[in-house]
Write a structure and sequence with these properties.
Chain lengths: 146, 465
């Protein structure tokens, strides 16, 4: 690097540039959080959905599944599982049966543990997954398989 | 300990040793998970996949934090040209952190996660159950306490001593690490908001402030092993980390594409992410340039190899493999696929595992009272470890990338109705997963060779030829 470009100039670019872009980032974050209510449908966020999210976290579901593409890649994406597995017509019945039949104990197949949830808890979890599936996330995932 | 410039640098040694022990644990659990990918019911009752994964990723984070702390305790006194403010505090915090970390890992392994959540009163302040932030809230508070004590210790040391560029960059990186971790305590009921701010920890750590820590450690080791003028190295350091933050902060946008956020993030995220490989490329040029201009033949050839290796692997893993799927139209198909896993593996190994091993390689001979470098025999063994681990990681990345491309092809690209389901796709990827597992075993062999180098050649120091 040329001698006319001094260490002091490099240092100023570091501190000045970082602060500048951090401020832009914070400004955009402020704007984004103002816009998000129109897309995340938080008006539908009931106590049941909130309990469902707590169950999702307390059982570390993210340790195998992805949710909106984040998490582990060992088990299916669940951000759209509500629509994939029956939607309004059949999801809750499917989900209740699915949770109670775990583990499937098919030799060699990946096993989902049984978390021993009661009917109320399974319903809360279903409500959480339903609410999640209704968020407007720019049309991700590309197809129903997630 | 006569080879240390400042006696208090010795506190780095337990940090490094414990980091390496945790590293072994991380790899063992990685192998268990890798096998569960193809033999689904392997240890399914004893160690379910989600537990193995939590242990694998949490051990990674914790061993790197131990490594960063050890690095800071080693290099800050020398850079500041004064003894550490309080070596006693450093040792106390070591035991606090080691005990809390061990208890947390045992908690993951011994009781169901929901029981752990109950025991630690997660319902009072729910923070658990989010990827990488699975630690019980009490552990998170412990981490904050340890971080504050650590920063106090370093801050006081630097205040009474020399304020070099390396010290300042390291400190801004470590302060950023502590500040952004505070977002781990924010867990709203709204999933979209939860995920948005979750990235304030995850992205702004690994694609932000951790890069400052990496840059500072690399600059320090390069000054030591090359003897190149500090002014030159520090100027490069500032330029590189400036690029890293300028691209990395708004580059967070590449995680906001599919999170109920405005579509402008797809443009901002794509543009700034495209710049993110540049600082890593600059780091490669810088490391090789400094080594070529070296003014002395340092007897520790292994440390030089690690320094060059980390720059190359960080560029490939974080830079190239990150860029591969960071543009919004590409990410639409690759998000959350095995491509993400491929990138994650090489980026973490190249940028952060290797930088910690770089400074361990440089500092350990001095910490153990051997001298500037281990015996040639020990260094040869260490370099075997370097190559086995690094080549194995290249193959792990390539196999996971292959798996990811096939996964996108079968599961994501076809229309609904024609696409294979997730589990049906996974069956088709089995061969890639088996080859990944074999590469993982070779990685473990490399790690064992690396560890064996600490026990070879005794206290005999290398001579400059």
């Amino acid at each position: 690097m040329s001698e006319s470009f001094t260490k002091g100039m490099a240092r100023n670019i570091y501190y000045g540039g970082s602060v500048f872009f951090l401020l832009i980032f914070l400004g955009l974050t402020f704007h984004t959080t103002k816009e998000m209510p129109q897309r995340d449908h938080r008006e539908n966020l009931t106590e049941s959905v909130a309990r469902g999210k707590a169950l999702w976290e307390d059982n570390n579901c993210i340790g195998c599944h992805t949710l909106l593409g984040e998490g582990a890649y060992f088990a299916p994406e669940l951000g759209n599982v509500y629509t994939r597995r029956g939607g309004d017509g059949g999801f809750k019945a499917f989900f209740n049966g699915w949770m109670k039949s775990q583990p499937l104990n098919i030799p060699g197949r990946r096993q989902m543990p049984n978390f021993h949830l009661n009917d109320q808890e399974i319903d809360d979890l279903a409500e959480f997954l339903k609410w999640t599936s209704e968020m407007d996330v720019n049309n991700w995932p590309p197809n129903i398989e997630g | 300990m006569s080879t240390l410039k400042f006696q208090s640098q010795a506190v780095a040694k337990p940090y490094f040793a414990f980091a390496l022990i945790l590293f072994v644990g991380q790899i063992l659990f990685g192998l268990i998970m890798g096998l569960q990918y193809v033999v689904g019911d392997f240890l399914a009752g004893a160690i379910p996949f989600n537990v193995a994964r939590m242990v694998h990723t949490n051990l990674l984070i914790v061993w790197l934090l131990f490594g960063f702390m050890g690095s800071a305790y080693y290099l800050v006194p020398e850079e500041a040209d004064t003894e550490l403010w309080s070596p006693k505090l450093a040792i106390i915090l070591f035991w606090v952190f080691a005990a809390a970390g061990t208890a947390t890992i045992l908690g993951y392994l011994l009781v169901p996660y929901s029981t752990l959540a109950e025991f630690t009163f997660n319902e009072l302040w729910p923070t658990m159950g989010r990827e990488f932030l699975e630690q019980p809230t009490i552990t998170k508070i412990g981490i904050v306490v340890v971080a504050l004590g650590f920063l106090l210790n370093l801050g006081m040391t630097i205040l009474k001593g020399r304020k070099t560029a390396i010290n300042m960059v390291l400190m801004t990186g470590l302060i950023g690490l502590a500040v952004f971790f505070l977002f781990a305590f924010y867990n709203p009921e709204n999933l979209a908001l939860d995920k948005y701010f979750w990235w304030f920890v995850v992205h702004l750590w690994v694609e932000g402030v951790w890069e400052l820590i990496m840059g500072a450690i690399l600059a320090y080791v390069l000054i030591k092993v090359t003897g190149v003028d500090r002014e030159v190295i520090e100027k490069w350091l500032y330029v590189i980390i400036a690029m890293a933050l300028i691209s990395g902060i708004l580059g967070t946008g590449h995680h906001f594409y599919w999170l109920t956020t405005p579509e402008y993030w797809q443009w901002i995220g794509s543009i700034f992410s495209a710049i993110e490989p540049l600082p890593f490329f600059a780091m490669v040029l810088y490391a090789f340039n400094m080594v070529n201009r070296r003014r002395r033949e340092h007897p520790n050839k292994a440390a030089t190899l690690w320094a060059l290796g980390t720059s190359v692997m960080a560029f490939l893993g974080a830079g190239v493999w990150g860029f591969l799927h960071t543009l919004a139209p590409v990410n639409y198909y690759t998000h959350g696929s095995q491509i993400t896993a491929a990138h994650g593996h090489m980026a973490f190994y190249g940028a952060y595992a290797m930088i910690v091993m770089t400074i361990i390689s440089y500092a350990m001979p001095k910490l153990r009272g051997i001298g500037e470098a281990n015996s040639n025999k020990a260094q040869v063994c260490e370099m075997w470890g370097f190559w086995l681990m690094t080549v194995a990681m290249v193959f792990i990345t390539l196999f996971l990338t292959g798996a990811g491309i096939l996964q996108v092809w079968l599961q994501r690209l076809p229309e609904s109705g024609e696409a294979l389901s997730f589990m049906a796709t996974q069956d088709k990827l089995a061969l890639f997963y088996w080859m990944r597992e074999v590469s993982g075993v070779i990685f473990l062999i490399g790690l064992l060779a690396y560890l064996a180098s600490f026990f070879i050649g005794g206290k005999e120091a290398a001579k400059v030829s």
